[in-house]
Amino acid sequence: MKFSTSTFVALALLPLAVISAKVNPLPAPRSLDWLDTTAIAIDLDRLHLELANYNEIVHNAFDRSLNTVKSLKWTPAAVEAPISKYQPFPTGLAKRDTNASIETIKVSINDAAADLQFGVNETYTMAVSSGGIEIVSETIWGTLHAFSTLQQLIIYEEGAFQIEGSVKIWDAPLYPHRGILIDSGRNFLSLKLILQQIDMLALSKLNVLHWHIEDSQSWPIQLQSYPQMVKDAYSEREQYSAQDISYVVEYAKQRGVRVMPEIDMPGHSRAGWKQISEDLLACQDSWWSNDVWSEHTAVEPPPGQLDVLNEDIYPIVANIYDELSKLFTENLFHVGADELQANCYNFSTILQDFFKANASRTMKDVSQRWLDRTLPIFYDKPERKLVMWEDILTTPEGAHNVSKDIILQSWNNGIKNIDLLTGLGYDVIVSSSDHLYLDCGYGGWVTNDIRYVDDNSGTNEVFNTGLGGSWCAPYKTWQRIYDYDFTANLTDTQKGHILGAEAALWSEQVDDTVLSSKIWPRAAALAESVWSGNRDPTTGFLRTNQLTQRILNFREYLVALGYTPSPLVPKFCLQNPHGCDLYYNQTVMDQFGTN
Amino acid sequence: MKFSTSTFVALALLPLAVISAKVNPLPAPRSLDWLDTTAIAIDLDRLHLELANYNEIVHNAFDRSLNTVKSLKWTPAAVEAPISKYQPFPTGLAKRDTNASIETIKVSINDAAADLQFGVNETYTMAVSSGGIEIVSETIWGTLHAFSTLQQLIIYEEGAFQIEGSVKIWDAPLYPHRGILIDSGRNFLSLKLILQQIDMLALSKLNVLHWHIEDSQSWPIQLQSYPQMVKDAYSEREQYSAQDISYVVEYAKQRGVRVMPEIDMPGHSRAGWKQISEDLLACQDSWWSNDVWSEHTAVEPPPGQLDVLNEDIYPIVANIYDELSKLFTENLFHVGADELQANCYNFSTILQDFFKANASRTMKDVSQRWLDRTLPIFYDKPERKLVMWEDILTTPEGAHNVSKDIILQSWNNGIKNIDLLTGLGYDVIVSSSDHLYLDCGYGGWVTNDIRYVDDNSGTNEVFNTGLGGSWCAPYKTWQRIYDYDFTANLTDTQKGHILGAEAALWSEQVDDTVLSSKIWPRAAALAESVWSGNRDPTTGFLRTNQLTQRILNFREYLVALGYTPSPLVPKFCLQNPHGCDLYYNQTVMDQFGTN
Q1: ipTM score of the complex?
Q2: Is residue A578, in this structure, part of any structural domain at all?
Q3: What percentage of residues in chain A have a pLDDT greater than 70?
Q4: How many domains are contained in chain A?
Q5: Residues of B in Cβ contact (< 8 Å) with A283
Q6: What's the burial of B46, exposed, middle or buried (CB within 10 Å: 0-12/13-18/19+)?
Q7: Given CA atoms A319, A324, A329, A330 in this order, what sign does their dihedral have?
Q8: How much is the pTM?
Q9: Are B67 and B137 members of one domain?
């Protein structure tokens, strides 16, 4: 499913554009050629869109971009330059052609009706000259990406809006599925903050918000079919109405972002379900028992799993799914299927009877039963694609038979599981925890934890000198994220099964206060990796060093827009390109060869 | 310098108060006894302060507390309860005595003129009964702490403000120096965010803002003596005027918080100084050279140290110090003295000549020269106390003779260095990086760093499965911070040399966007440790488990006030006391014995 490989290779053979402008849009376009660097003024008051047929989404997107450009008056905060401090760098912004002033953006869209769904064409081309700006795209979703690029091209300098020169861009994503995962089940996330994530996704050309909306801790969704479920929201304020959800979906669509819901079943199930009937669940009132491992019932508190053998659950699952399926317009629906705990079912009489009746039965039979009973429910329309965590296939608790129609999201064992799953012929979304989990490295959050006691003997230092209690420590830096070659050593057939990647922020230690700072700008490193790649298209070498000033500038851009992405470095490093490099040698990463 | 040890021991022998109220002020007072739990209404519209003599600071503090209580209408977000989910917990809020309504707060202050300086008496007692509230303190600074407690005692329930019952509190800090370190040199911190830190310090009874105001990366201070220095601020916006600094100092004083400035010399010196003359510095334009270790000139970019042997620097140091000394009213002044790099002085002709002239000379002679020349400058008033990083004594680059008058701030080797320094008779501020550095665990921030490349061989995983490039990884959790027994195994004489502790947040990866979330609520764990201790006063056992609901509630309180402290756990853990404990056994920590 990797897009346009042949086109990509063909373009990679073209001579590289000389990078000589201050602007450095993120993600780097697939191809960007400055034709000259005589700056071209832009008359924003007279600038208007030429589009054959009025399209509300495109016009709104254009107005947003234009207003952002006008109000920000952006000048790049971090610009690229050679590492030497003595050699002055040619900045590109030469004399501005005061006769030329761009007033027109001509947009051509071939298929304005194409719906925002997985795999829709997002390609665009853009040409900027003193005569105006021309954007050509197959769909309006490509046009939106062009606007994201354009607003990063226009800068404010010497009292005027301008583009640094004539430029041609051809651009297209490497992968159709590019996103972040947010989790409003462990802690509530407000609508305001969710919308802000969508803004930043659009700016970085990510196109998926994977919304892990509930979990065993809370059920924030107001449903008509089972209004009692939302009693397990954290408070009356911390809930999503149907209107809220539709608003998020529509807001995202306006910005080219798909919202993929996740209802995690049959594990991670407690809140909400127990308000319908305690009989739907197993072990929901048990001690999670990490302290007595033989009795542990959950990977984290509180426990709870749907009692798969209880036939009463399926009509309820169907009703809930049906109502949610109508709220989310996205073809992809994520139904969880991760981290099923065998011990939990010790609390279920039905399941214990099931095992007793035939000694050869295992958890695989339980998971298979779940699949057999739910797939007919979940495939509720022809376009439906289901996504599940890889656990349904890769763990001892997984099912016997997992259809190749099911997209598997991989989070364990890094490249090894990507190799395994694609080798078996499954379509895969890459979310390897060792590279793409944004919540790692903050220590453990469970309480009454003696592992933090340091008795000063020097021997009980494991939680200090070790990983600090975070299961997926260390913290994944933007460099770590960008350097991840998740297709390394795969065959072309295997590569074709990679649909894309998601960076995941689980919310055990996240709510509104830190949501944006934990996701951004790190997700922007992934954004470039899945849009135009983490390697130089000509040499094949990792281009992390080239991303440095681009991502530092992008972070400042987000700050200027009012968001709260984390700073990556002392501001000195922005103002002194490569002055904070570990290696003076600017090609030191080339030793790692091509992918 | 540990306060009131004898009083503390005496009180520890008294019967423990039965914890039966929902409120759980942080830090836990030294002594708090509920006399009954018939809730007492408080008429906030009629509530007034009785104080013998009008005192602006006390009246303002009272108004702030009162307004906070009125506007927040706080009900505890996390309340303590036994771990069992079946046994209902007596909540303490029994029938409210509708006849009683508190209208008066009587405050007695013995010495209202006592200045806010190191060691000032901060003790208070408070008695709440239906007859009113009585606060007695030696100084107004004790009164301010009483108000911080009081506003956490008053809750809003059943449509009325109330205190859960009659209560008596005696309270006093264990240590006179209790603070956080912020760093506006690596990245700028706005006045707004600095003031917010002061608000939260006051609420948690911390009393020191250690302001590491500049560093080699930037000099944000506008000085009259050398106005050119501020050219090395990051921008015109990112500067502090004298007025700004005075405003911070006065704002802090109003809240019982001392502002201790730090100008880091002679290492960590570049920005600002080089605007006066490049000759004041050594190696400021060198490559920092971590990639060629034999040539490295700094622990982080950019390099730069004052050229200690250049006599021209001392009149300039004197002028700068003099101007700053007048801006900060605090007796303690921190003058750095950490991380001097011998290699840097390879770039100084004067220093190379100095070494060549006598082969027995070492860096110790250089540091001694610095002390000998600067101490007469720095001791500019009788009350002056100097603080330096322990490096001046403990490293090979340190001085030969370090006066016992100099307070040493310890950041290396945890308890070992505390033992060493106090054993030698130095007064110590504890900031052990392995427990109290809040910036640890976020990975490395230097760029062009090949260590993040994972070649998928499984062997180059050190930055993923290891510490992730953060020199002081892992992240210090609130439990780790609270569990730190920094006086373990010390003699009473040594304990007497501990002035207190500071949690430090260095700003390489910090600016306004994350300042509060990286400091809070973790600093509140230290706040309790240095105010009333991390161990149960009766049993001597670590009371981390008791702090859990207290700090979770305190974090929600800060959120309600509009700050952005990080969430520590899923909200489920607030709503289900001890439901997220690792050990069901509520006394599992007792195995670690008494300190």
Answers
A1: 0.92
A2: yes
A3: 92
A4: 2
A5: none
A6: exposed
A7: negative
A8: 0.94
A9: yes
